[in-house]
Amino acid sequence: MILIDYRDARPIYEQVVERFRILILRGVMRPDEKMPSVRNLAVDLSINPNTIQRAYAELERQGYIYTVKGKGNFVSESSLLLQKYKEEIFDQLAEIYRIAIGIGITKEELVACIKEGGSYD
Asked: Across the strands, what pairs with 34?
């Protein structure tokens, strides 16, 4: 379910957050579904439980999961979260667009790059 890329420059907890966000937004993990326990996930991924706890705290802060005292963590309703995530992506694209245009990359080059899946020739 969750894989860690040790060559990724991002901290492990950020990778865990991103992987769970994608699973939740794609509907792989359904609303009110129980999340893996911190201890079990830490053992499965061979990482420190504090890392998982930090990832879960971030997911809760962002609204992707909620905690039930004594029961664990559960997936939140994701319909509004998907719209919010899309807005974040479009904001990032707008910033990239401004930077690209600023250094002389044309709209056509950007569109071609996106159509090719991000490759640049």
From this structure: 74
**By CB neighbour count within 10 A (0-12 exposed, 13-18 middle, 19+ buried), where does 100 fall?**
middle
> In whole angstroms, what is the distance from residue 31 CA to residue 109 CA?
40
Structure tokens at 7: 């060559």
CB 65 within 8 A of CB 35: yes
Return the number of other C-beta atoms located less than 10 Å from residue 35's C-beta: 21
In order, the DSSP letters of 19-85 are HHHHHHHTTSS-TTPBPPPHHHHHHHHTS-HHHHHHHHHHHHHHTSEEEETTTEEEEPP-HHHHHHH
Give the type of residue at 33: E
The token pair that represents 47 in the structure block: 């990482």
Angle CA 18–23–28, to nearest 5: 175
Q: Along the 121 residues of the chain, how does pLDDT read in single tens digits?
A: 788 998 999 999 999 999 999 999 998 999 999 999 999 999 999 999 999 999 999 999 999 999 999 999 999 987 788 888 889 899 999 999 999 999 999 999 988 888 888 766 6
